[in-house]
Design brief:
Number of strands: 29
Number of domains: 4
CATH class of the largest domain: Alpha Beta
Shape: globular
Strand content: 15-25%
Mean pLDDT: 86
Structural class: alpha/beta
Largest sheet: 6 strands, mixed
Bound molecules: N-carbamoyl-L-aspartate
Distance between the termini: 43 Å
Low-confidence stretches: 219-224, 228-239, 644-657
CATH architecture of the largest domain: 3-Layer(aba) Sandwich
Helix content: 25-40%
Length: 657
C-alpha cells in the first residue's frame, strides 16, 4: 500500500497545505463531524530529543480525534540505550501503531526511519534540518492574523543556521509568495545549502538589503537579506553598485513588516569551540515595541524562548506566539486527518519529481559532508544517496544529500566499465551525465579512494604549459599592485580566498601586500560547501576574542580564485559574503579567466586571459597543494582508455568496447 509520509515541507503542495488549513478551521470546533475520525487508530510518538509543544499537541490532536497514543517516555530508556538502530526501532514500532511521529537529533534520521516503517511517518524535527509541522502552525497563525500569505513581509530573526523551524518556514514562505527578510545573528546566517535549494526549487533569491536602522532595533548583527518578489541579481555584481544599494535602502525603508519570526539560539547544536557564534544575539523587547515601523508587526516564535524575546512583548497585542502554540492542536488534527485520508484513497505522494539519483555503484563512495547527517552517524540505517546537480551552485558538478540536503562538490569521477577515473571538469559533463543514466558513474572523494578500488587514471593528452612559475609570480605581483592602487587604507581591505587554490593565492597576495606596505593584511577563506564555517579567518586564531567571525561590514573585500569559467563558484561565494555582512565593495582577482561565463560576473584583476574551448581542461598546480611540483598552469585534454579521443567521445568508445 502506498503511504504518505511528511518529512519535509516540500512533501506537500500548496493546495494541499490550503486543504489542511480548511480542515484545521473545522477542527477548531471540537464537536465537529471529525470528532471520532481516528477512533481505533494508534499513534506512536518517538522523541529522541526534548519536546513540550510538538509532542503534547500531536498527542492531544490524536486523542481529540478519538485515537490513542503509545509512546516511550524517554528514548534513553528504550532499546536505543542498548544500541538498537533507528531502522529496527522504526520497523518494530510501525507494527504497533498506525502512524509514527518522530523527532531526532540527527539530520535526515526521520527520513531514514520512514523507509523502514510501513505506516506513515511524520517528522517532528530532525536535527538542524526541517520541522515541517511547525511550519504548518506558523503559516496558519500568520494567515489567521494577517488574512493572507502572498505579499506579506516576514522577518526571520536569530539562529538561522541551526534553526530547523526557520528552514522549513523559509521554503514555505517563498512558495506562498511572501517576502522574506533575514536577520541572522552573526555567524548564524542561513546556510548556503538552504539558499541554493531556495533558488533551485522555488526560484527565489535572497538579496542583500541595507537597513542599518532595522538591525539597530534588534541587534548588532550585520546581515539583512530580502527576498524581492522580482528576484534581481544584485549578488552577481562584484562591485557593490551604489545606486542599487541606495535603491534597496529606499525599498527597505518603505517596507512594511507584517511579521517577525524570532528564534532561540540552538545551543545544543553548536560545535565545541563554537561559543563565538551568535555572541551578539538579537533580542526583541521594549525598543522593538516602541519602533513605529513595527507598529503592525506581529511577533511569532516557535518556542521555547530563552532570553531573546522579552516578556514585555507578551502583554502587547502583537505577541501572538501563545496563540501560535495553541493552533498546534487543530493544525496537527488536520494533518493527521489529511495523512490518513491519503492512505485510504491511496493517493500517491503529491508531486513526483524526477531527480538524477546517484547511489555509488562501488562499495566506497562519496560521503555527505554534514557530520550530523544520518548517513554519517548511522550508515547501516541510511546508505548515502544523492541528487546529482549539474552546473549547480558552487560551479561544476554538485551532489545534494537526499537525507539532509547538504551539498558537496564532486572532485573525481570514474566510469565503472573501463574502470578509469579523472578529476571532474565541465568538459566531461555530457559523458558523466550518460554514465549516470547507465548506472556506470562512480564518484570518489579522493584519488586514493579511486586507486584503492582498482581504477586507473584516464590518459592525459598533450599538455601545454601556459603559465610557468615566473609568470604566476609576476601575475601575483601585478594583481597586488593593482589592488593597492584601487584600495585605500580606510577601506580596511580583506583578502578572501576561495578554498582551496584560491585560498593559497590569496595568501600569496597578502604576502605581497605586506612586502609593499610593511604591515599585515587580514586574510580569510571561503568554503562553499564544507564542514567548517563558510567564512573563516586565516590563520585560524586560537585566542578567544579573535575567534569571532570576520566582520565584513564596510570593508573592501578582495575575493580570490584560481580560475574563473562559468562564474557559478563566484556567484556562490558572493552570496556567502553578502549574507555575512555588508562590505563596501567586493573585487574579484583570478589567476586565469577562461571565458564561457554563465552568470554575469566580471573579474577586476586577471593574471591571464585564456579563451579555451569547452573541451579543454585548465589546471592550476600550486606547490602548496601538489607536493614536489612547481607552480604552473596547464592546458590539456583527457583521452579514453585506448588513447586519442576527447572526453565526450570517451563514452561512445567505452560503450563499443
Ligand atoms: C522548536 C524545535 O524543537 O525545533 N520548538 C518547537 O518545536 N516548537 C524550536 C526550538 O527548539 O528552538
Amino acid at each position: 500500500m502506498k503511504k504518505r509520509d511528511f518529512i519535509s515541507i516540500s512533501d506537500l503542495a500548496n493546495d494541499e497545505i490550503e486543504e489542511i488549513f480548511r480542515l484545521a478551521d473545522r477542527m477548531l470546533d471540537r464537536a465537529g463531524p471529525e470528532a471520532k475520525f481516528c477512533a481505533g487508530k494508534i499513534m506512536a510518538t518517538l522523541f529522541y530529543e526534548p519536546s513540550t509543544r510538538t509532542r503534547l499537541s500531536f498527542e492531544s490532536a490524536m486523542q481529540r480525534l478519538g485515537g490513542s497514543v503509545i509512546s516511550c517516555p524517554d528514548m534513553r530508556f528504550s532499546s536505543t540505550a542498548k544500541g538498537e538502530t533507528i531502522a529496527d526501532t522504526a520497523r518494530v514500532v510501525a507494527s504497533y501503531a498506525d502512524i509514527l511521529t518522530v523527532r531526532h537529533n540527527w539530520d535526515g534520521a526521520v527520513k531514514a526511519m520512514a523507509k523502514y516503517a510501513d505506516v506513515p511517518v511524520i517528522n517532528a524535527g530532525d536535527g538542524s534540518h526541517e520541522h515541517p509541522s511547525q511550519t504548518l502552525c506558523d503559516l496558519y497563525t500568520l494567515r489567521k492574523e494577517k488574512g493572507k500569505l502572498k505579499g506579506m513581509t516576514v522577518v526571520l530573526c536569530g539562529d538561522l543556521k541551526h534553526g530547523r523551524t526557520v528552514h522549513s518556514l523559509l521554503y514555505a514562505l517563498a512558495r506562498f509568495g511572501a517576502h522574506v527578510v533575514t536577520l541572522g545573528a552573526r555567524g548564524m546566517e542561513i546556510p548556503q545549502y538552504v539558499v541554493e535549494k531556495l533558488e533551485r526549487e522555488y526560484h527565489y533569491s535572497l538579496a542583500p538589503m541595507a537597513s542599518d536602522d532595522l538591525q539597530a532595533v534588534v541587534s548588532e548583527s550585520d546581515a539583512v537579506y530580502l527576498t524581492p518578489s522580482q528576484p534581481h541579481q544584485l549578488a552577481l555584481f562584484t562591485q557593490v553598485d551604489p545606486e542599487m544599494q541606495s535603491r534597496l535602502k529606499n525599498l527597505a525603508s518603505r517596507l512594511k513588516f507584517d511579521a517577525l519570526y524570532m528564534t532561540r539560539k540552538q545551543k545544543e547544536r553548536l560545535k565545541e569551540g563554537g561559543e563565538g557564534e551568535g555572541r551578539e544575539y538579537p533580542r526583541i523587547g521594549e525598543r522593538f515595541l516602541r519602533e513605529r515601523r513595527f507598529k503592525d508587526t506581529v511577533v511569532l516564535h516557535p518556542l521555547p524562548r530563552v532570553d531573546e524575546l522579552s516578556p514585555e512583548v507578551d502583554k502587547d497585542w502583537r505577541g501572538i506566539y501563545f496563540k501560535q502554540a495553541a493552533y498546534g492542536v487543530p493544525v496537527r488534527m488536520a494533518l493527521l486527518k489529511f495523512l490518513f485520508d491519503a492512505l485510504e484513497s491511496r493517493k500517491a505522494v503529491g508531486k513526483h519529481k524526477t531527480v538524477n539519483l546517484f547511489k555509488s555503484p562501488e562499495p566506497i563512495g562519496p560521503q555527505c559532508l554534514n557530520h550530523n547527517c544520518v548517513t554519517r552517524t548511522e550508515p547501516v540505517s541510511a546508505e548515502p544517496r544523492f541528487e546529482a546537480l549539474f552546473a549547480g551552485g558552487g560551479g561544476g558538478f554538485v551532489l545534494r544529500c537526499c537525507y539532509c540536503d547538504h551539498q558537496l562538490k564532486v572532485q573525481y569521477v570514474g566510469h565503472t566499465r573501463p574502470k578509469r577515473y579523472c578529476s571532474y571538469d565541465s568538459s566531461l559533463l555530457e559523458a558523466v551525465q550518460r554514465w549516470l543514466m547507465q548506472g556506470e558513474l562512480a564518484i570518489f572523494d579522493s584519488l586514493k579512494q579511486a586507486e584503492e578500488l582498482g581504477y586507473e587514471p584516464y590518459k592525459v593528452g598533450p599538455q601545454r604549459i601556459i603559465m610557468d612559475e615566473a609568470d604566476i609570480r609576476r601575475s601575483i605581483e601585478q594583481i597586488s599592485d593593482q589592488i593597492l592602487a584601487g584600495t585605500g587604507e580606510r577601506d580596511r581591505p580583506l583578502i578572501l580566498g576561495v578554498r582551496s587554490k584560491g585560498a593559497v593565492l590569496a595568501g600569496r597576495i597578502a604576502e605581497q601586500l605586506k612586502v609593499r606596505r610593511n604591515r599585515d593584511f587580514e586574510l580569510g577563506e571561503i568554503e562553499i560547501y564544507g564542514t567548517e564555517e563558510e567564512i573563516k579567518r586565516v590563520p585560524a586564531s586560537i585566542s578567544e576574542t579573535e575567534r569571532e567571525p570576520i566582520n565584513l561590514k564596510d570593508r573592501a573585500v578582495i575575493l580570490v580564485d584560481d580560475v574563473i569559467h562559468t562564474g557559478r563558484t563566484i556567484k556562490s561565494a558572493l552570496s556567502i559574503i553578502f549574507k555575512s555582512g555588508r562590505p563596501r565593495s567586493v573585487r574579484l582577482a583570478v589567476l586565469v579567466d577562461r571565458g564561457h561565463r554563465e552568470v554575469p560576473v566580471k573579474p577586476d584583476y586577471v593574471g591571464k586571459h585564456i579563451p579555451s574551448s569547452d573541451r579543454e581542461r585548465v589546471r592550476v598546480k600550486l606547490r602548496e597543494i601538489e607536493q614536489d611540483e612547481k607552480d604552473k598552469v596547464l592546458i590539456y585534454s583527457v583521452i579514453g582508455p585506448d588513447g586519442g579521443q576527447p572526453p565526450p567521445d570517451l563514452t561512445a568508445e567505452a560503450t563499443v568496447s
